[in-house]
Design brief:
The chain is mostly helical. It has 3 helices and 2 strands. The longest helix has 13 residues.
């Protein structure tokens, strides 16, 4: 799989950091210091306070660098 090869690169190069889109969110769990992914989308019935926090986090730093860039 593609993410397995990317994970190998993160292990080989621990100083590399990346912002990824939601398709690569799985890389953020094993490499939290290296990979930044957008937050999970809330359910429609989530409280307004949670939606406000979600929107703030989601829009605070949009992914500008793909997993392929350093």
């Amino acid at each position: 799989m593609r993410t397995e090869r990317i994970a190998d690169l993160f292990e080989q190069f621990p100083d590399v950091k990346a912002k990824v889109d939601s398709g690569y969110r799985g890389l953020a769990k094993p490499f939290p210091d290296q990979v930044s992914a957008p937050p999970l989308k809330l359910k429609k019935n989530a409280p307004a306070q949670e939606w406000a926090a979600y929107e703030k986090e989601r829009t605070s730093s949009p992914p500008s660098v793909s997993a392929w860039s350093t």
